[in-house]
# Entry
Amino acid sequence: MELVVRLAGAAGQGIQSLGEILARSLFRSGFFLHGELSYHSRIRGGENAFTVRLADRPVFATRRDADLLVVLTPEMGRTWGERLRPGAWVVAEEGAFPPGPRVLGLPALRLAREKLGLPLAQGVVLLGAAARLLGLDLDRVGAAVREVFGAKSEPNLQALALGWELAPPQAWELPSPAFAAGTHMLLTGGQAVGAGAIAAGCRYLASYPMTPGTPVMEFLAQRAERYGLVVEQAEDEIAAINMALGAAYAGARAMVTTSGGGFALMVEGLSLAGMIETPVVIHLGQRPGPATGLPTRTAQENLLFALYAGHGEFPRYLTAPATPEAAFYATMKAFELAEAFQVPAILLTDQFLVDSYVVVPALDPARVPMREHILSLEEIAQMEHYERFALTSTGVSPRAVPGLSPHLVLVDSDEHDFYGRITEDLAIRKAMVEKRLKKEEGLREATDLPEAFPESLRGRTVLLGWGSTFGALREAVEALNAEEDRYAHVHFQDLWPLRWAEVAELLEPAREVITVEGNVWGQLGKLLRQETGIRPMRHLARYDGRPFTPEDVVEGVRRAP
Amino acid sequence: MPSIKVLAEREERGVRFTGGHTLCAGCAEPMVVRTVLNAIPDPVVVASPTGCLEVATSRFPGTAWNVPWIHVAFENAAAVISGVEAAYKVLRKKGLLDKRVRFVVFAGDGGTYDIGLQALSGALERGHDFLYVCLNNEAYMNTGVQRSSATPKCAAATTAPVGEAIPGKPQERKDLTEIVAAHGIPYVAQAAVSHLIDLANKVERAMNYEGPKFINVLTTCPLGWRTPRDSAIQQAKQAVETRYWPLYEVIEGRYKINYKPKEHVPVEEWLKTQGRFRHLFRDPQGKELIAQIQAEVDRRWELLLKKEQCFGVGG
# Structure
């Protein structure tokens, strides 16, 4: 059982707030949901849509067609009017949608202006009507209005009631609540990354605003005081990553958050992190490029960029969480592996994941154990001499914080010896390269292989994906298998380093592989071929800035290649 | 000096920046852009980095630009205009172009004070012949009001949020006009959208000089400042009256304050009209913080008076 509600209007009409109210109301009613925010990069006008998918089970994908469309402008009526399911209802501002059966046109703007003196409450009037059609509890929606509007709630509550009275009651049979209060959480991918950073003991975030990296920065800035974090807005991304490296040198767990353009500026610093073996977590929220591209849309174009960015050869950890819930744990793991192996860790998300609202079981930070990887004062007191870059069997050298012991902690961007002093001794150079790359072996053991569904791929056509497309792919495979049980879904979260021989073994029994990615090149497919020799038969690409829906994938697979 | 009539006539003869863009109602930016472009009679090439002006003026199916215009990445408007200017110079040298083309950058405070500062400094030092106009609305408004180094102390921004312990942005705003003046370029000025004729005069004077020219224009943002949409001019005017934003010029190193308010209007009068400072009037510490802001305004004003005294036009 599922129901798709789409709210659409122009920028500046408060669509995101309306969506958040609806999502909160549904969550408090005990329903699973997925909320997708889709918006134009402009301050006024354009398209803003919030698609809420209510379900009786966890969902991580959005839908193309809606059961209930709430439209504020004629432009949005035209855009989304074709994207309706049979039997759908439309709640529209008068004139924004052609009259017809199951179309409820309301003079919401006039009501908001005349009765409340607040034209901006237009959307809330329509939401009130939609809430009644959906069969929601008015008090519960009212509580969500209070949560979202705070001190400005009063006129909005009146607006909600105005709309409520103008709608017919309940048009659908809603499922019974799927979970009890207090057992689940409503969160966005951006919040999950921020919360994961806090849970992992992040002490320092330096960043420069760039959509869709910014939500993580704002989340942490609002909580910096409470959780003992330093949040600094840098003058650009070059400064941001170098500030984070400075903080990490001084012992803090440090992070930056950005998007592709900002990451491009960070690349020299990334290479520096590799050389000075200083941990840093980089949240890279992808959006379509090149250059400014589509600033508020989604893409998966930066896999190969994130993997190969930086001059010289050095290990890194690259992971792309599949869902907002996974993003919480992946962020914790990224911090832990960055610290354990003294490498940069890149957390590859995208606008779709960052802005998606989902309902997940209450997060449990204890699931990812955190360890201290910096030498304690007792440990360092026992050392007669200290080498920051000592050769070890794992390649990982003991990391001391400068200034806390009599020992000198030297790091250098030039090739250096075990103490961190510049050297051109070619034997040492060779040893240091090998030491740094040795760390990748340990890191590889700590990464997870892709998940296969069903477990045995024998004779099946495998849809291969990574990152935020998880929900769409899983549902597509379920739908395809319901007709003909010969498909499978293999999904990568950890992307580098991987035990590729085992990946090859996993895929070997499959009949064929189709990659499904938010890019043209089939970047995971290229990587797979390079590392295993397996050549995907087809690539299903999406590069229009929109996320994959399950129906996109099903249609794509069925279409003759 | 160009009168309103002259500016209007030029606009009627050939409009350089049209209406119909999607900047917010009450945004002060288009007034600044039109005034600057109308104050330059020569052909103009414009560069803009990412920002409100860029996204709101160049969207399909239209463009507000009726002059050659290049949008660049966020940090490099000054660098790109350097290349454009150098290329035109060569065209002139080769005799392929006989008219004098002028080069103008319109950039926000984020793209100027923060990420674009290095490129700006480089272009100023190399001495390219261009005018750089900073549309200073004191934060990253396009991406939802993040603080910049132009954001005044105590203003609320999403990355400098108001909380129990922190009253908005903790740091003072950067004095970029003086940083630019320290490059020793021929023409530097501060202007405000409330004083458009003053702005037009400054542009005209600036264009008399060969080399880099810089004008920092206080440009109200009703969205980020949380002020009524019909108050942009009043807001900027009050910033000038309270001496928060002095109108002045540094011409070949000589200081000239263009307007000295006769009465001392406390900066509080300006702060209290803006939502971004609202917490100062609720917080018990607010009085102390307002006093600190006033002290900084006074300090900068006194310093400016002294500079004019020592390095004035007549001095």
Summary: The first strand of chain A starts at residue 2 and ends at 11. Chain A has four domains: 2-166, 186-367, 377-446, 451-558.
